[in-house]
C-alpha cells in the first residue's frame, strides 16, 4: 500500500505553486505616480516602469521608481528565469539606467513575453539572488494600446516563463532531496522488517505437508 508514502510527500508536492501569484502584472495608471500608463506588479510595489507609445506599434519603457533594484528582460516562453539568468543577461530596461529605456515593436495583436526581476531586500544592487522575486508577463498590442494578457510572479527561486512552475530556492531543493531520501530509506527498512511497517506482512502458510508418524 503506497498511501502513507504519498501522504508524507504531499506537502512537498504541493508547495511549488503556493508562492506563485497569477495575473500580478498590469499596464495602467499608477495611484502614487503621475504616470498615464505604467507597467507595475502588485507584489513588487516599487517596480514602476512608464510605458508610452512613441509611434504606431512602438512602445517605449522607461524606469521610474528607484527605491530598490529591478529589471525587465525580453524572453521567450519556456525560459528558465532566475538569478543566474538575471546576472548573465543584459536587461531590456532596469532602474540603474543601463539601459534606463527600451523600445518594443509589436504589430497589431502581436504578443511578446517580458520577464521581470525585483530585489526583495537589502541595499540596491544589480546582483540578483534566489530570495528575490521573479515573474513574467505576456504583453499584447491591442488596437494600438499595450496591455498585459497574462502574468505570474514567484516570490523567490525563479519561474518558468509562460507557466506557473516555480523554481525552488537551493535550500528548499536540498531540504526536499534530504526528506525524500529519508522517506525512501524508511520505506526500504519497512520492507525488510514488516513487523515495524504499516504494510501488512505476508500471510502465513498453512499448506505445509504433514509427516506421517
SSE layout:
Elements: H1 3-14, E1 20-22, E2 25-28, E3 38-41, E4 44-55, E5 58-63, E6 70-75, E7 80-82, H2 83-88, E8 93-94, E9 101-105, E10 111-118, E11 133-142, E12 145-154, E13 158-160, H3 170-192
Antiparallel strand pairs: 1-12, 2-3, 3-4, 4-5, 5-9, 6-8, 6-10, 7-13, 10-11, 11-12
Describe the model.
This protein is an alpha+beta fold. The protein has a domain at 16-160. It is built from 3 helices and 13 strands. It has helices spanning 3-14, 83-88, 170-192; strands at residues 20-22, 25-28, 38-41, 44-55, 58-63, 70-75, 80-82, 93-94, 101-105, 111-118, 133-142, 145-154, 158-160. A 6-stranded antiparallel sheet has the order 1-12-11-10-6-8, with no helix packed on it. A 5-stranded antiparallel sheet has the order 2-3-4-5-9, with no helix packed on it. Helix 1 (3-14) packs antiparallel against helix 3. It is globular and about 45 Å long.
Structural class designation: alpha+beta
**Sheet having the most strands:** 6 strands, antiparallel
The number of helices is 3
Number of strands: 13
Based on CA atoms alone, the radius of gyration comes out at 26 Å
Strand content: 35-45%
- Give start-end ranges of low-pLDDT stretches: 1-18, 172-180, 193-202
Question: What would the average pLDDT be, to the nearest integer?
Answer: 80
Report strand order across the widest sheet. Answer: 1-12-11-10-6-8
Q: Helicity level, as a percent range?
A: 10-25%
Amino acid at each position: 500500500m503506497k498511501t502513507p508514502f504519498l501522504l508524507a510527500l504531499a506537502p512537498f508536492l504541493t508547495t511549488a505553486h503556493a508562492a506563485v501569484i497569477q495575473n500580478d502584472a498590469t499596464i495602467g495608471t499608477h495611484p502614487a505616480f503621475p504616470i498615464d500608463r505604467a507597467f507595475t506588479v502588485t507584489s513588487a510595489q516599487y517596480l514602476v516602469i512608464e510605458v508610452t507609445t512613441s509611434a504606431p506599434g512602438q512602445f517605449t519603457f522607461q524606469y521610474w521608481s528607484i527605491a530598490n533594484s529591478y529589471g525587465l528582460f525580453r524572453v521567450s516562453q519556456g525560459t528558465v528565469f532566475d538569478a543566474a539568468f538575471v546576472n548573465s543577461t543584459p536587461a531590456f530596461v532596469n532602474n540603474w539606467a543601463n539601459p534606463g529605456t527600451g523600445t518594443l515593436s509589436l504589430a497589431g495583436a502581436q504578443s511578446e513575453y517580458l520577464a521581470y526581476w525585483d530585489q526583495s531586500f537589502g541595499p540596491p544592487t544589480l546582483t540578483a539572488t534566489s530570495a528575490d522575486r521573479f515573474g513574467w508577463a505576456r504583453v499584447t498590442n491591442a488596437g494600438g494600446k499595450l496591455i498585459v494578457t497574462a502574468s505570474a510572479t514567484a516570490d523567490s527561486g525563479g519561474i518558468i516563463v509562460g507557466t506557473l512552475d516555480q523554481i525552488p530556492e537551493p535550500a528548499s531543493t536540498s531540504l526536499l532531496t534530504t526528506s525524500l531520501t529519508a522517506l525512501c530509506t524508511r520505506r526500504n527498512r519497512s520492507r525488510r522488517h514488516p513487523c515495524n511497517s504499516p504494510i501488512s506482512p505476508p500471510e502465513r502458510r498453512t499448506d505445509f505437508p504433514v509427516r506421517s508418524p
